[in-house]
Amino acid sequence: MTEPKEHIPLFKSWKGWYLLVIAFLALLIGIFYWLTKYFA
Amino acid sequence: MNGIDWLVLSVTLAGIILYGLLKSRTSRNLEGYFLSNRSMPWWIVLLSIMGTQASAVTFLSAPGQAFADGMRFVQYYFGLPLAMVVICITFVPLFNRLKVFTAYEFLEQRFDKKTRLLTSFLFLLQRALSTGISIYAPALILSSLFGWEIFYTNIVMGGLLIIYTVSGGARAVAYTQQIQFLIIFGAMFLAGYMVVHLLPSGIGFVDALHIGGKLGKFNIITTGVEDGKFNWNDRYNIWSGIIGGFFLALSYFGTDQSQVGRYLTAQNNTESRLGLLLNGIVKIPMQFFILLIGVLIFSFYQFNGGPISFNSGLVEDVRNSTYADSLSRLEQQYKTISGQKEQAAIAFAQAVKSGKAVEEAQLATQLSALNQQSTEVRDAFKALGKKASSRDTNDTNYVFLSFVKEYLPAGLRGLLVAIIFLAAWGSIAAALNSLAASTVCDFHQQFTGAKTPEQEYQVSRWYTFGWGVFCVLVAEFANQLGQSLIEAVNVLGSLFYGVILGIFLLAFYCKRVGGKAAFWSAVVVELFIVVLFFNEQVSLFSFLPDVSFLWLNAIGALGVVLLGLLLQGVQGKFVQKQATVV
Lengths: 40, 582
Description:
heterodimer; A: 40 residues; mainly alpha; 65% helix; B: 582 residues; Sodium/glucose cotransporter; 3 domains
């Protein structure tokens, strides 16, 4: 049985989404690091 | 709470029950009742996942946690987005392809029936007891602050949601979680706005952050390194958050039916994945925002002397005991320090604004010393509290609601009490639905004859009702046993999560390992984990190390994988030897 083709929003494949999630995590950590230093 | 608060509280709770009943129409079969006919779009899956994870204690504890220990708790969630990616790659396509009702059903297809039953049993045991405590914990805080009878608070906290959960199954759970979450977030945003609004005139949001930052509450990123060495006992830092948080989230979202059941309701792989991945994106900012409210409340109390303890029930117990005179002396001391803190905080905020760096540094040091003095007085009160009362002297969980009770206007106060109930209902409803799904699909169907869809639907409703009553009874029983039980049962999850995750890791990543090896490795490691845990409490075997409960997850998961591989290897050699003999 073949699975129906997925329509992935925004990106061509799920890899784009996975990278987005990981990049967003890295960005948040960067922002949090800056906030920690700035208000300390 | 006045009449307006009661009105807002009653209307909000009644509205959710009615909405849940309105959304109860579903197909009268197992797929309709437990999986909403696999029809949900990604945004409902997302809100359902978030509503299941965020219990009442999340909204009660997190601001208090930031108040006491700063914002570093947010690092605990750093592993979650990574776990979402792994689950989307491995777990989601498999569960959806096999059209399973429960995560444990997959284990029968991969291993055998006994491994499925064992894993499902461990889940039921852990989830039922922890759901009972997630009813009791917020009920206890509300009853202590507002003087409500805990027996009835438990019933409202854990009982009313049974009406729509029994009636509408997964569909009612998902739709009510959607509304609950929107109300919760609206109310939390209003609470955050009110904290800033109630600061003295001329003191704004950024000033409050500067005060929190200078007093160590804006410690969002910490490395866990002290004096050049990594501190393994430091619970929240970037490394424990990414690594420990990853395994915890993988286990919770990948193998706990209360979460798996949420994304199995999605229309297809795409909707499941989008719900999970967006959870990976919005969860950390959400926790950051809730913790930020705690820092703002901390700054607020620099300008407004707070109570000596945020648990007003505890203060009353001490006041009515033989330690009343000692309490009066401590309160007088605390008031004097609070007055000095207020002056220093105002001067500090002005120094920051005018850019006087030297003055700013001096005032920050003064403010820090005054806060140290406040902490010492509060500690002296806690020592009195231990002698005079059986209540918990740690008031971290009481900080947020105490602020709500004392400072917020009528109506908003009722709404914020309502969101505690709504948050509890969201996670408890999902838990009851998953407990019933596992009982019906993993046990009832296995041991009874063929049934019609209508009979299965009715049986599922009765199991949901039965689990609801059981969890409320656990909450009432917990009240008889005392508050120390809360922590004990929180630890309970760590006794089982590791082993359950280990079984799934074997299933996904160790293709050679069969049912017999997986089953016996899980049994042996589970017994070892239980022995290890009790050994830490009573020191039965001196040769076993004392291990904090947080490590039991990793030991359980790795133990099952390694022992499973070993047993499979031994079994393989044994079979090979027999074949040679024959």
